[in-house]
Design brief:
about 220 residues, about 0% strand, globular
Length: about 220
């Protein structure tokens, strides 16, 4: 897994977000705000000192993992509707980097994500077997996702696709229903990680590597 300057900078950015959010709360153990503040300060200091190897031992940031799962601090969002974007996503970003050593998906990688989407759309449209209803609907959902990414109206991570892309969820199981199609599982799992989890492939260390890998995908897999 990669350990890059970008990851540490991103980690610092999201730690700073919570440090500012809980600026008026003391760094104590008897409140979730205090525990969260202590946790992100610890992570930030080590990231700034280049004394943080990814992934971090899960016991070293158990507070964030617990609070994220429990939803304890969601009420600090400006409204209940904004809790996911303002509280859950920043926590998810920290966990993605610290726990899983992932690279975050960013706007400048949209072009390369869309190459995967185009490939999957092509694969579905040219499938040698009859598609199920959900697989057929997936084509339209993928086209919508691609348009949204390119226009900037979709900003990963979107979270669970249940209420927004039901056919996507129906197809993308532990073992996707399109696993029998060439590269079907590989493509949908890569797209899912980008769109719904907001992380990019480990090999996309930078723009150049993302471009080279997806160009190779185009050439070798006939997008």
């Amino acid at each position: 897994m990669p350990n890059t300057k970008e990851q540490l900078c991103d980690l610092i950015e999201y730690c700073d977000y919570f440090i500012r959010l809980f600026d008026n709360f003391p760094q104590v153990d008897d409140t979730p705000e205090g525990r969260m503040k202590a946790q992100v300060i610890w992570l930030k200091e080590r990231a700034e000192n280049n004394d943080l190897t990814l992934p971090v031992d899960k016991e070293m940031f158990s507070t964030i993992r617990y609070i994220y799962t429990d939803g304890t601090l969601s009420f600090h969002a400006t409204s209940p509707e904004n809790a996911y974007k303002e509280i859950e996503v920043p926590m998810q970003r920290i966990i993605s980097i610290a726990k899983n050593a992932k690279l975050l998906f960013k706007r400048e990688y949209v072009k390369y994500a869309c190459r995967y989407i185009d490939k999957l759309i092509s694969l579905l449209k040219n499938a040698e077997r009859k598609l199920t209803t959900d697989e057929d609907n997936l084509i339209h959902e993928l086209e919508e996702i691609k348009d949204g990414l390119e226009e900037g109206s979709i900003i990963p991570p979107l979270g669970n696709p249940k209420n927004i892309y039901p056919s996507y969820l129906a197809v993308d199981r532990y073992n996707p229903t399109i696993s029998d199609l060439p590269d079907g599982k590989f493509l949908i799992k890569t797209i899912s990680a980008i769109v719904f989890n907001g992380v990019r492939p480990d090999s996309w260390i930078d723009i150049r590597s993302a471009d080279e890998e997806t160009k190779e995908l185009i050439q070798s897999r006939n997008i």
